Fold these 2 entries.
Entry 1:
Amino acid sequence: MTNNALRQSLHLHMARWGLKRFTSDADYFAWQRIELSSSDLIQLRKVVAQKHEGGHLDEVAFYDRSAQPQILPVLYSQRYEYYIEVGSRVAACLGDAAHILDFGCGVGILTTFYAAQYPEKQFLGVDRSPASIAVARERAQGLGLGNLRFECVDVELQPIAGSQDLIVATHSLVQAEQDPGIPSQNWQTFERTHDSKQQALFEQRTGLDIRLDRLSALLAQKGRMIVFEKTRQLARRVPLQRALAARGLGLVEQPELVRYRLVEEVADDGPFYLLGMEAGSTLHWDESPEPDEGPPCDPMQFKTHATDQDAPLYENHGPSAQGVWEQLHEKRLLKDTTRQESDGRQLHVELGQAEEGVYLYCANTFDQRQLVIVEPARALMLESYYRQIVEGASG
Ligand SMILES: C[S@@+](CC[C@H](N)C(=O)[O-])C[C@H]1O[C@@H](n2cnc3c(N)ncnc32)[C@H](O)[C@@H]1O
């Protein structure tokens, strides 16, 4: 089936689940007010706030609450585009696997889609939220799916039995969304040292260690895994990739970043990984920053294109700012500060002169880069900006 046909079929499947697609946030919130009573709305907001505060129990409570019949379509419609983008990609990658596990399947919106598309394959959905699993079972039965079963298991507390040809883990492996990941060696590089202690700490903090150990142990010989997490930032992508590689998983396809629209935000997630246990992959893990869409690398070229008189001569807030800063002509440093922040990151900020003008360069070990160049007559503006960053950093 082509990806387009899979997407069409997924839209129909979503309608069967009562999920709606919205192109405007205002329309979505108007619908939310019609669908939910004010007490449901209050309760929903309370659970969402608790989840953001963290903690294992709160997360299970959040997913239990999300599975309630009146809440489910309203909450999960926010993720409509996510289901279309991720579900269609996963469905296109199931290959010849006969036994497939959907880890952290939630209420089974996507698991029931995969099972309906591939009646010849056997599916198992696992989740630690009892209410989500109850809904998943009920829906699978309602959809007449005989090739799908669900188990309520917290994989951190107990292993899953059996062997699987393919494991799907979408938004279920790397918890701790706020975890910034592993910093680079220093502010001048995007590279991470191979520090096993730092890696182990990241895996523990995010729950990745036990999940991946238990899941990879389930994979049959030459088994495959599909992974899609919120690990777009290099600082999270690198330790995820190293954790996968350490469990014997290699790339089967070039990973791909996925962009989709949620209510009140556009999410850039991923990469979407198709991985295999077979040896000899010719594809390599990419540990370089994502190419940004920065302005032209030559600041002088940028100047000739600038239309706004008040605009700086050059401004770049992406990783490519580093290359431009390295190549500035006849750089003379006026002042600089490098310091360790309380969250572990190292921050460097410098003010200098170059043939191109007066510049401010700011870099940190979580891969943020910023280069601004102005005409010498506007140097005071950059100086005050420099002070703000230094004071903000120390405060
Ligand atoms: C964000 S939802 C993702 C659901 C689904 N995979 C999707 O792509 O829409 C994460 C799910 O993973 C489940 N989960 C997280 N940690 C788990 C664990 N240790 N064992 C089982 N399920 C877990 C949660 O209960 C939740 O339902």
Note: The longest strand covers residues 265-276.
Entry 2:
Amino acid sequence: MIPSQIAYQKPESLEEALNCVGDLGDMCKILAGGHSLIPVMKLRLADPENLVDITGIPGLKEISDAGDSISIGACATHADIANSRPIHSAAPMVSKAASMIGDIQVRNFGTIGGSIAHADPSADWPAVLLAADASINMQSRSGSRSVKASEFFLGLFMTALQTGEIITSIDIPKSAANANSNYEKFAQPASRFALVGCAVAADNSGDALADVRVAFNGVSATPFRDGGVESALTGSGLNDESISAACGVAADGVDVMSDHFASSAYRKSMAAVFAKRALKGLS
Ligand SMILES: Cc1cc2nc3c(=O)[nH]c(=O)nc-3n(C[C@H](O)[C@H](O)[C@H](O)COP(=O)(O)OP(=O)(O)OC[C@H]3O[C@@H](n4cnc5c(N)ncnc54)[C@H](O)[C@@H]3O)c2cc1C
């Protein structure tokens, strides 16, 4: 491969990075772990003139307890997240998903911010962040904003992120549902990307299930919450009958993807299987 000329910058503060991406606009790409961007550049699907490496910015890697939520810095790696105790107790599906991404090299380099900015339909984070009702915090030099995961993922490799913005952190609410959550995936055997991934969270502290959230990735071009499965479970007990009945409608009405790994019919049936496995892991 003969690469084209690229200017490389590694800002030491968020302010400096925001000025770089603000000045360069579409001529630059933000570089985090490089595990999606570099392959895309090798394929010439992206040909930026400048790379702005954000991995040296203090604070962007931090995972902290913010009281009613856990804040995960955008440059936290999948391995950092998998090994975080506060995340494991607040939302076990988040640590479990992190531990299932790729292989150890990918987990040590790839970041949560890079993954969600890339928005691969088979990536693990989107369904988990939807089921967690997470918020994504972004900053540009003109200000900051926060959007719910449900408004962030817009389509195949498309998000609400705008030119000049950097994802700074992700907030995972501390809720009864997130504390009782699980993630299961049917992994592509080589890459470990999800042919089907299902994240579930539900408050089971009362007489019946409440605040039920069931989300899929790998199934359609855009990750989604499955309202049919959620309504079927809400108000019922968590048992084999309720889980089987609810999973019978998994991915109903969804435009299910088909590719050389799995047909749409197979993916849809696997959506039911993996939703069932994920729900059976709840207490
Ligand atoms: C062999 C292999 C196996 C993999 N398996 C899996 C898997 O099983 N599951 C899975 O989910 N993923 C998997 N991945 C993808 C991996 O998780 C990547 O790390 C992730 O998709 C991208 O994160 P990154 O930090 O490397 O981002 P980069 O590649 O550096 O960047 C990706 C994109 O995000 C932008 N970006 C990066 N950070 C920010 C930010 N903070 N704000 C705004 N934009 C930003 C970049 O400009 C670029 O467009 C795999 C990758 C490889 C190479």
Note: Residues 29-37, 54, 74, 101-102, 106, 109-111, 113-115, 117-118, 123-125, 161, 166-167, 191-193 surround flavin-adenine dinucleotide (CB under 6 Å).
